[in-house]
Write a structure and sequence with these properties.
294 residues; mainly alpha; 0% strand; globular
């Protein structure tokens, strides 16, 4: 099996793990402050990655450190928004709304990098916007405006992180970049927790199980899979595969947290998933452009 195929399969597994963690993190942050949870999670993950890739860390120059810090800053913003969102909305809503990073990634690439924006992306973005409105309960009951808005902000940060990762892995070693960015999230979270007086020791099986799963599998393993895969796949392709995360989040939210979407919410979730898939699938069915004559 090719490296590209292996990397894509690892991204599918990563999406499943990330989908599972929505429910676990939601339960954990009900017992431990968000900054403290994120600090313990990412510092442990950074230490694990640093031990594994200690040799490549020694050769990472200043440009590599700066690339890792940028990736870490975007991750920090994304995870703070996502984790606080889980305090104000359901795990299913947070999962589906975070999945908006798929149509947002090419939109952001067009704005920041000047890449070409096609009609499929614009249509997917419009469809996803309608889906967000329905999923968030616009015009109905059960509104989660703060939590859903935070989750949408998280999607934007994750899209920017994918673009920054695409730049970083083109010139720097994957493991070293990963260690730096995870450390940035951990140190920033630790500082916020200390300044805010929220640096509490983790206690209880719910918190510890969430920390172990998120640190080892979701952070160290998951972000290595993403960073490695971006050596072989363009950002839009990586975003599409990782978009399986909201489907898994909805599944685990239903199985483990008894999340139930109303009819409008279910329609909104479906529209978001259709928008996510459309970004990659529609261009595959277009006939190739004819070659110029002569």
């Amino acid at each position: 099996m090719s490296r590209t195929r292996w990397s894509e399969l690892s991204l599918v597994a990563t999406g499943a793990v990330w989908g599972l963690t929505f429910v676990m993190v939601q339960d954990a942050v009900a017992e431990l402050p968000v900054p403290a949870f994120l600090a313990y999670r990412f510092l442990a993950a950074a230490a694990l990655v640093a031990v594994v890739f200690r040799r490549s860390l020694r050769t990472l120059g200043g440009a590599g450190v700066r690339a890792g810090v940028l990736m870490g800053a975007l991750l920090t913003a994304g995870y703070f928004l996502q984790t606080y969102a889980l305090q104000h909305t359901t795990a299913s809503n947070a999962g589906f709304l975070t999945g908006l990073f798929t149509p947002v990634t090419p939109l952001l690439a067009a704005v920041v990098l000047g890449t070409r924006l096609n009609r499929t992306v614009l249509g997917a973005a419009a469809l996803a916007t309608v889906g967000v409105a329905l999923l968030s309960g616009v015009g109905g009951e059960g509104l989660h405006p703060l939590g859903d808005a935070l989750a949408v902000g998280c999607a934007v940060c994750f899209a920017a992180h994918i673009l920054a990762t695409d730049r970083g892995v083109s010139v720097h070693e994957v493991g070293a970049l990963l260690a730096v960015q995870l450390a940035v999230v951990g140190v920033a979270s630790l500082a916020v927790a200390a300044i805010g007086g929220q640096l509490e020791a983790p206690t209880g099986g719910t918190v510890w199980s969430a920390l172990i799963v998120t640190a080892v599998f979701a952070s160290a393993g998951g972000f290595f899979a993403q960073t490695y895969a971006q050596q072989y796949a363009p950002p839009a392709r990586v975003a599409l595969i990782l978009a399986m995360e909201p489907a898994f989040a909805g599944l685990f939210g239903w199985l483990l947290a008894n999340d139930r979407l109303a009819l409008t919410g279910l329609l909104g979730a479906i529209l978001i998933l259709v928008a996510i898939l459309a970004v990659d699938l529609i261009p595959r069915f277009r006939p190739p452009r004819p070659l110029p004559e002569g």
